[in-house]
Specification:
alpha/beta; Helicase, Ruva Protein, domain 3; 2 domains; 5-stranded mixed β-sheet; two-stranded antiparallel ribbon; 13% strand
């Protein structure tokens, strides 16, 4: 028989905290209980820091007005950095993919985050992503990082069915504009996710990117 939890054993505030933790992705009831009781054991100062950190994230973190990376300043630090090559734009699906690529230290251009990928079966069409904003950066240099002309767009969508479909759509749209379009090398295993790839694999993928026909 499946184990049932006696919620009445916990004070109501503790039970609410457990319920909230259990709503997080990958967090089951047991993990939520451990997290809640860890907070109970911590000092008021430590618990306050956690509370303030959560509040600061919700109040101050937003999407960059240029690339749609998560940021607390606008434009983000990558888009506004004079050390980055604004003519080279690497397109990824989510901010976590950008973070993985940044950890390689190999890439010196800027990014564009789609905030998803095309998935018509689940109702995700081009208008639901930031594709129009990407095309605007290509068409109008003044709206791009550093106000420079985009000369190359690297497609860094995940190597799976939805990622490939998104890359194909983008290559068609960008090809009409005469911009060079490449894609991260297939050192990335098909069906995998960027966030789970090692730094070495991601570095090889950047260095070995290929032209899109």
């Amino acid at each position: 028989m499946a184990r049932t939890f006696d919620k009445s054993a916990n004070p109501e505030p503790v039970e609410r905290l457990i319920d909230e933790f259990s709503k997080l992705p990958g967090i089951g009831r047991r993990s939520a209980e451990r997290m809640a009781f860890q907070i109970l054991k911590s000092s008021a100062e430590e618990a306050g820091r956690l509370s303030r950190a959560i509040d600061d994230v919700k109040r101050n973190v937003r999407y960059c007005e240029i690339c749609y990376n998560l940021t607390d300043v606008n434009p983000c630090r990558i888009c506004s950095s004079p050390q980055r090559d604004g003519s080279l734009v690497l397109v990824v699906e989510q901010p976590k993919d950008l973070m993985s690529l940044e950890q390689t230290g190999m890439y010196k251009g800027v990014y564009h985050v789609l905030i998803g990928r095309l998935d018509p079966l689940n109702g995700v069409e081009p208008q639901h992503l930031t594709i129009d904003r990407l095309l605007e950066r290509v068409d109008h240099p003044q709206s791009n990082s550093g106000g420079v002309q985009v000369r190359e767009v690297i497609l860094g969508t995940n190597p799976n069915l939805e990622g490939d479909s998104t890359a194909l759509y983008l290559s068609e749209q960008l090809g009409r504009r005469g911009v060079k379009v490449t894609r991260l090398a297939r050192g990335l295993p098909a069906g995998s996710q960027l966030e789970f790839a090692s730094k070495a694999v991601l570095a090889d993928a950047i260095a070995g990117r290929q032209s899109v026909p």
